[in-house]
Amino acid sequence: MRGGNVSRRLSCYLRRGATIGLMHPTNTDPGPDSTPTVEDYLLAIASFEYEHMPVIAARLAERLGVSAPTVSATVKRMVRDGWIEVQSGNLIELTDSGRTRADRIVRRHRLIERWLQDQLGLEWSALHEEADRLEHAISQRLEERISAALGHPETCPHGNPIPGNVRTWSREGLWQLSQVPVGTVVEVRRISELIEEQTDLLSFIQDSGLIPGNPVRVADRSRGGMMDVRVSDSYVQVGENVGRYIWVMPTKA
To answer: Model's pTM, two decimal places?
Structure first.
């Protein structure tokens, strides 16, 4: 399916099967209104926090593809509006209201990804990009309808938890693929949100079969930072710089 057709197909689906308008979101959150730009920043900050990475302006600029002055101006507005705080060392942290709104955006984004895959059959590597386009447009009512229609899934197709559908989530027991000893059989559990903007890399991961739910085995490791990973009946070379974004759990051989 071509990515550009998803929004049109979604609108047609809703006209046929639901009475909830896609393009007329309702805002039930307390606090100031959040613009799509603010929501993008909140989602980016939450993504870094999920990975236990300190959030600084330079990382936001790289993640969002904007200039340092743009980040600086937006951060100042978000501090003023109570979404974030800037701590010592210029570390950016979500306030309580910022975290509440960020969880809502993360929930909406990941539900849309799940919906696009399970209901529309969109290819796995394109889910994040399309969800980015749609997440600002749906209402909370539609969000809940999507969740209910999907059986309240606990994770998105990339294996990341959906706030509100999973009570607790921990990385305990998970390894980065880059840390797995040679000969160990593991199951892919999640792909870091931090690389979901990189469509080409996601396509490589999809084509290699390194998606959540698949068992893999690290067959060999070279000094050049490359790993030979067995997936089903084939082998794929994966750089350790990529493997650190693929989270796995040991399983029985």
So the answer is: 0.82
